[in-house]
Amino acid sequence: MFDYTLANGVMVSPGKKTHTGDLGVKGEKIASPGGNVDKTTVKIDLKGKSCVYPSLINTHDHLQGNYRPPVGPKKGCFYLTWLPWDNDFKASETFKERSRLAREDLYALSGYKCLFSGVTTVNDHFPHHFNSQILPTLPIRAIQEYCLSHEASSYDLKWGDGIEIEHERAVKNKWPFITHLDEGFDDEAMRGVETLENAKILDSHCLLVHCIAFSDEDIRKVAKAGASVSWCGFSNMFMFNVTSKVRKMIKAGVNLTIGTDSSATGSANLLDEIKFDRELYRKLYGEDLPAKKIFEMITINAAKAFWMQDRIGSLEEGKLGDILVLKAKNDDPYENLVSSGMQDIELLTLAGRPVYGEIRFLDIFGGKLPSGYTQIKTGKKEMFVKGDPAGLYREIRRKIGFGKKLDYLPFEPAEPQENAAGEGN
């Protein structure tokens, strides 16, 4: 049971004016800081030097696939659909090297890919029979409340029980129905919206991924239906040299979110993805995608796409205490977020519990490193973290047989004797 206040931070939440103030946490949830303070409450003074955000949400990843380097088309060429990429990937050295690792290793790496980029909620786009046992072991929240298809096409990977059954289940449970759509330019791939319409399942439960072949009419229909879209700009450009018509989607009122895709084709993590996507938007349209809009796409828009906006996505009393604290380097807190890197994270909490942070935040645990946590050094900063990512990194290198570098892990693992786990409190 946690009871603490983050005081004198720049508070940034969708739909609210930014201000310097306090944020209270009681148990798993955000609480009124005024009513939260008593003799047992831990108060940490941020001194106006930190920005406090809802933690970030990645709407599209494949957690088994987060291995490097990425695999793509031959130089000067691009794919017509996702299928030839799948063939190239399975014939690649990356896949061969990755195959030396257990599935548990790959999922653990993905959990830390998320954690070290300020993400506490992600969708793993694989069927439930594939991931349901392993997702609860991760240091972040990989949602299990979803229904899916691989893609709405005849040559997809046949995940789930069929688009109609999966969608019906999503509606019944108030979950998202998640599918790749229009990820390519053959005749069938470009009829994705028509396929959903014909099945009578294009609605607000749909979270549609990639959507690079959408027509203007497709965008209009998706907006009218209240469906969401996950934009994965880096992966799109890497594989196809084209991305979604994001400006038209925004103008049409589509609930637009951002996903990384797996690191086999996508960016290293969500912080890198938003920087790439913003620069891509500038190149495509000759104007800026406002930092505030990006912030909404990776918080409240994403929460809405997951049908979780009543629980996460903003700093509101009664919502889960999913909190990201970043060093304030820019006077505009939205610009501060989109320009931040892994080294700028000061604290990350999941349902009120710190999962990563600077040593000064150990006061929340009574000043001691709790059982199940270790310390690492990110740059020059000593940090505590849930689990043992340094041990994981060492084990990955042992299995691979050399000093593998993974750009989403922001540290070099110390020798085991230098990084002993703390005693429980």
Summarize this structure briefly.
By secondary structure, the chain is α/β, with parallel strands linked by helices. The chain has helices spanning 33-36, 82-90, 93-98, 103-115, 128-131, 163-173, 192-198, 216-225, 233-240, 246-252, 270-285, 291-297, 300-305, 333-339, 389-400; strands spanning 3-11, 19-26, 29-31, 42-45, 50-54, 56-61, 119-124, 141-142, 147-151, 177-181, 206-210, 228-231, 255-258, 323-327, 345-350, 353-358, 373-378, 381-386.
Overview of this protein structure:
This protein has 425 residues and is of the alpha/beta class. The strands form three sheets. Strands 1, 2, 3, 4, 5, 14, 15, 16, 17 and 18 form a ten-stranded mixed beta sheet that branches. It has a five-stranded parallel beta sheet with strand order 9-10-11-12-13. Helix 12 crosses helix 14 (333-339). It folds into two domains: 3-54 and 320-418, Urease, subunit C, domain 1; 57-305, Metal-dependent hydrolases (TIM Barrel). A hairpin with a 2-residue loop joins strand 17 and strand 18 (381-386). It contains 15 helices and 18 strands. Helix content is 30%, strand content 22%.
Strand tally, please?
Answer: 18
Shape: globular
The biggest beta sheet is recorded as: 10 strands, mixed
Q: Tally the helices.
A: 15
Counted up, domains total: 2
Please give the CATH architecture of the largest domain.
Answer: Alpha-Beta Barrel
Unreliable segments of 5+ consecutive residues:
418-425
Radius of gyration: 21 Å
Question: Could you tell me how far the N terminus lies from the C terminus, measured between alpha carbons in angstroms?
Answer: 13 Å
* CATH homologous superfamily designation of the largest domain: Metal-dependent hydrolases
Residues in helix, %: 25-40%
What percentage of amino acids are in beta strands?
Answer: 15-25%
What number is the mean pLDDT? 95
CATH topology of the largest domain: TIM Barrel
Classification by helices and strands: alpha/beta
Q: Which CATH C-level class of the largest domain is it?
A: Alpha Beta
